Amino acid sequence: MWRWLHSLFGIGGMLLVALLALTGAIMSLVPAVDALGPYARPAGDLSVAQALAALTPNFEEIEKLQRTSAGAFVLTHRQDGTVLHDYVDVSTGTVLGPQQDSAFFEFVKDLHRSLRLGNAGRLVAGIGAGLMTLLCVSGATLLIKRFGGIRAVFGPVRGKPMEKLHATAGRIAMVPLLLTALTGLYLTLVTFLIIPSGNETPPRYPESLEELDPVPASNLAGLQQIALSDLREVTYPIPGDWFDVYALKTSAGFVFIDQFSGETLDAQPYHPATVGLEWVTLLHTGEGAWLWGLILGLTALSVPIFAVSGFTIWLTRLRQGGARVAGNAAATSADMVVLVGSETGTTWGFARHLHEKLTAAGRRVHLAALNDLRSAYPQAQGLLVLTGTYGDGHAPKLANRFMPKLSSFGGHLPAFAVLGFGDKSFEHYCRFSLDADAALAARGAQRLLPPAQVDRGSAHAFAQWGQELGIALNMPLALSYVPPRPATQPLTLVERIEYGASVGAPTAILRFKAESDAVPQHVAGDLIGVIAPGTQVARYYSLASNATDGCVEICVRHMQAGLCSGFLYGLSVGAQIDAYVRTNPEFHLPRRQSPVVMVGAGTGIAPFIGMIRSERGTRPIELYWGGRRPDSDFLYETTTRHMLETGRLARFDAAFSRGASPAYVQDRIRANAAGLLERLHAGATIMVCGSSAMAAGVRAEFETILSSLGSDVATLRRQRRYLEDIY
Question: Architecture of 489-586 per CATH?
Answer without folding.
Answer: Beta Barrel (2.40)
